[in-house]
Amino acid sequence: MLTKNEIKELIAMDRNSKKKSAAKTGKRYYNGDHDIKKYRIFYFDSEGFLREDKKRSNVKIPHTFFTEIVNQSVQYIFSGGRIIRSDKSELQTELDNYFNYNEDFTSNLQQLLTGCISKGSEYMYMYKNSDGKTAFQCCDYLNVIEVTPLNSLDGKSYIIYMYNESADKGKKEITHIQVWDDEMVHFFCRENGGDIKGDDSEKINPCPHNLYSGNDGTICYDSFGCIPFFRLDNNPEQASDLKLIKELIDDYDLMASSLSNNLIDFDTPLYAVSGFEGDSVDQLQQNLRTKKIIGLDEGGTVDVKTVDIPHEARKEKLELDEKNIYRFGMGLNTVGLRDTVSTTNIAIKAAYSLLDLKCQKLETRLKQFLRQIVRPVLDEINSEYGTDYKPSDVWFEFKHEVMSNALENARIESLNQQSMKTKIQNIKDLAEFADEERISSMIKEAIEEYDI
Q: CA 389, CA 377: separation in Å to the nearest integer?
C-alpha cells in the first residue's frame, strides 16, 4: 500500500507533469478560456519605464474553433445506431441494456471522448449501480494519477483519484484522496494543502470496491479483481488535438481583437486646429462633441484627419488562419458548404475527408477501449444467466452521417428508378425465352442492384 509520504510526492510530481499541464490548456480552450484573455498592452513612458496602457481599447475575443472541432469529432463518431453489437440476439439485448440504449452510458461515453480529444486522455470508472449491475462513469483525467509498479515502493499498480470541496464558508478547501488497488480503496484527505491524513468521513476505511446490503440485511462486499479505471488515449503521445493548432488560434484571436481595437480607437477623425477662440483645448473638445461648432481667429484653420486601417490585409490573414485551423485540426470547415444547392456530393465528401481520417484512427483506439469494458460485463452476464459468451461474440460498428445535396440525391434517385424500370422492362421482353422462375429471379436482382 502507498504511504502518505508517497502519495504526497506523487501528487506533487503530477502537478508538475507536462502532460497534465497540456491537458489543462486543452480543457481551458475547449471551454473558451483562451490566452487572449490575459492579453495586456504596454508602452514606454517619457522616462523610459515600461507601463501598462489601461486607457487604450483592449478587446479580448476568444474564437472557439477548438470547441467546434472537438464537438464535430464526437458527433461524427456517435452519429447514431448501435455501437456494441453481437450476432447473438439474446446477447445483443443485454448489450443494449448495458450500453447502446442506456442513456447514462452513452452520455458518459460522449463525455469520455470529448475529454480525450480536448485533453489527450480521459478515464472511465467502473462501479455497481443501485440495481447491482455493472455501470460506468466518465472520470476527469486531471483528477487521476496513474501509479505504475516503477513508481511505488511495493512494486504494485495504483490509481489515485482526487476531488476538492469547500467547507467553513469557503475558508477551508478539503482535497479528498482515494487510492485504488485491485481489491480495496483507501480514503485520505488534506486541508488547504496540508498534511495527508485518513478520511474520518468514511465509515469503512479501507473499503472493498463494492459495498451493499444483502437480502437478509447483512452488509455484503466484493471487488472487481482489477483496478476499475480504464483510460482512453487520443493518440500514442496522449496529446490533445489543440497541440497542432493552438498557435493558429492564438494568432486569429490576436488579429481579430487588434482589428476591433483599431476600429474603436480610430472610429472618429482627428482635428488639426490652428487659431481658435476659447480658453483651453478642453473647451475646444467640448464644442466639437456637443455643438459641432468652434470659433476660429482670423486665419485659423481646421484640418480633419482620418486614419485608414489596413483591414483588408488583416481580413486575408484571418481567412488564412481559419483555413489552416480546420486543415491542421482536421475538422470540417463548413464555410465552403454554405451553398448547398451548387455543392456536389463529391465536394461534400472531400470536405469531410480530414475529419473522417482523424476519426478512423480514434475509432481504432476506442474499439480497443470498449473491448476492455465489455469483458467484465460479459462475465456478469455469464454469471447471472449461466451462459458462456466470449469477447469474440462482440464486435463494434460506427455509422457516420454525412450531409449531402438533397437536390442531387433526388436527381440520382430519379435516374436510378428510370434505369431500373428500363431494365425490368427488358427482362420482361425476354419472357418467351426463359421460364417464369428465371424471370422473377432476374427482376429481383435488378431491384436489389439499385437498392430502391
A: 10
In 3D space, the residue among 18, 31, 108 whose CA is nearest the CA of residue 66 turns out to be 31
Peptide bond into 206 cis (omega under 30): yes
What's the pLDDT band for 413 if we cut at 50, 70, 90? low
- Rounded mean pLDDT, 30-38: 95
What pLDDT does 288 receive? 56
pLDDT given for residue 395 in this prediction:
95
| Interhelix angle 246-265/311-328, nearest 10 degrees | 160
pLDDT for residue 443: 72
Distances in Å between the alpha carbon of 122 and those of 108, 151, 225, 272, 307?
Answer: 11, 21, 22, 61, 51
Query: What is the DSSP code (8-state) at residue 217?
Result: S
Q: What is the DSSP string of 245-260?
A: THHHHHHHHHHHHHHH
Judge contact between 230 and 124, C-beta under 8 A.
Answer: yes
Most confident residue range from 193-202, 212-221, 286-295: 193-202
The domains of the chain are located at 69-235+362-396, 406-450
C-alpha distances (whole Å) from 60 to each of 14, 190, 377 are: 31, 37, 49
Question: What number is the average pLDDT over the span 380-392?
Answer: 93
Distance CA 228, CA 127 (A): 7
d(C-alpha 65, C-alpha 81), whole Å: 28
The residue assigned the cell 502537478 is: 15
CA–CA gap between residue 325 and residue 319 (Å, rounded)? 10
Crossing angle for the helix pair 311-328 and 65-77, nearest 10 degrees?
30
Long-range contacts: 128-136, Cβ < 8 Å, 24+? 128/210, 128/212, 132/212, 133/98, 133/380, 134/98, 134/376, 134/377, 134/380, 135/104, 135/105, 136/105, 136/108, 136/109, 136/373
Side-chain-side CA neighbours of residue 203 (13 Å): 2
Query: Pick the residue with more confidence: 248 or 201?
Result: 248
How many CB atoms sit inside 10 A of residue 429's CB?
9
Contact status, residue 276 vs residue 296, Cβ threshold 8 Å: yes
State residue 311's pLDDT score.
74
β-pairing, 210-213 vs 207-208, is unpaired
What is the signed CA dihedral for 338, 343, 347, 349, rounded to 10 degrees? 70
